[in-house]
Design goal:
The complex is a heterodimer of chains A (221) and B (99).
Chain A (H helix, E strand, L loop, with lengths): L2 H4 L21 H5 L12 E6 L3 E6 L5 H11 L9 E3 L4 E6 L2 E6 L4 H11 L5 E4 L4 E7 L3 H6 L16 E6 L2 E9 L2 E7 H15 L4 E3 L8
Parallel strand pairs in A: 1-11
Antiparallel strand pairs in A: 1-7, 2-5, 2-6, 3-4, 4-5, 7-10, 8-9, 9-10
Helix pairs in contact in A: 3-4
Chain B lengths: L2 E4 L4 E4 L4 E5 L13 H9 L7 E7 L7 E7 L5 E6 L15
Antiparallel strand pairs in B: 1-2, 3-4, 4-5, 5-6
The chains are: A alpha+beta (221), B mainly beta (99).
């Protein structure tokens, strides 16, 4: 084999700015412009941005044991199959497509994890830092599933959408990767350019149930 | 609204998540430099419009973003099933790709 085929090195850089630079999330201004409807005591929907997470897209062949082993050894997480996720204390690995996964991690750790992945993987694969390209919106509370159900064509019943499942589908007129973290706790990954639209849609859709901006008080995350 | 089976997600999903991409199994002339203009024009521009079963290329645009083929009846709009690229129309199915 020629050098061109075996050399998988690419130039990568740490995208974290130096200390002292103010980081503003995709929904920084949208959140400031939104008014809560009820306090946390009465609200049935809790909405907040899980801002500035580290996000890496990992692509490769799941059938290639070297790739699957490399990913799981670098992350200490098994490569999840169809429509599922693997979760550890600090990371979540989401299935996106048969050859694509999304890793959510600490933003400060993203570069170290990317380096670790590149050290563990060989051959035909890709690791891309997309931390600036999308954001996570969290939706919780007893009426969270009702809000999702009127926003998406995908059924969110317990049987059809169990905890840990990951589904990429339509959210109103845009697209979201929806993960069920707990029975009443949902995570939506939306593109940065559609984040404001998704946020406005969700705040509007939540109003009838009583919306509180922020996490529920008992939430330990 | 109707539902289409995505062989990569292994689930029936709403039509809203998909886009049609034209007829499946279009054969590109093997040697484009030496084929006639008519052959090349046929490949580029001219499409059959069959009455009955038709194999089509679809993409799960809002889901896994994978292309796959659908066998659909153009008279009744009945979708017989979906199959992955590289498979043959007789493997069209509406369930059974769970990992």
């Amino acid at each position: 084999m020629s050098e061109l085929q075996t050399d998988t090195r690419v130039s990568i850089m740490n995208q974290m700015p130096e200390a002292g630079v103010t980081a503003r999330s995709a929904l920084y201004f949208s959140q400031a412009a939104t008014q809560p409807v009820f306090g946390p005591g009465q609200a049935q929907v809790f909405l907040w941005e899980d801002a500035l997470r580290g996000q890496l897209v990992i692509r490769g062949d799941a059938g290639n044991t070297d790739f699957a082993k490399g990913v799981s050894s670098a992350l200490d997480l098994a490569l999840p199959g169809q429509l599922s996720s693997s979760v550890s204390a600090t990371m979540a690995l989401l299935w996106i497509a048969p050859d694509e996964w999304l890793l959510l991690c600490d933003l400060e750790q993203a570069f170290a994890i990317e380096t670790r992945l590149r050290d563990a993987l060989t051959g035909h694969y890709a690791v891309i830092n997309v931390s600036g390209g999308q954001t996570q919106i969290r939706l919780a509370g007893s009426a969270a599933a009702s809000v999702l159900q009127k926003s998406m064509p995908y059924a969110v019943s317990d049987a059809h959408f169990p905890v840990g499942k990951v589904v990429t589908t339509a959210l109103s007129k845009t697209q979201a990767t929806v993960r069920r973290i707990d029975s009443t706790d949902w995570e939506l990954t939306v593109r940065r350019s559609f984040a404001d639209y998704a946020w406005r849609w969700l705040t509007d859709a939540s109003r009838e149930y009583g919306l509180h901006l922020g996490q529920p008080e008992h939430n330990e995350n | 609204m109707f539902r289409i089976y995505c062989p990569y997600c292994g689930e029936l999903r709403e039509e809203e998540e998909f886009h049609p991409k034209g007829p499946a199994h279009l054969a590109r002339p093997a040697d484009p430099d030496n084929c006639t203009d008519e052959q090349w024009g046929d490949f580029l521009y001219f499409r059959d419009n069959p009455r009955g079963l038709h194999n089509e290329l679809w993409v799960h645009a809002l889901g896994c973003r994978k292309f796959f083929n659908v066998t659909r009846d153009t008279q009744t709009y009945l979708i017989k099933g979906s199959y992955r690229l590289g498979e043959s129309p007789d493997q069209a199915r509406t369930s059974g790709d769970q990992a």
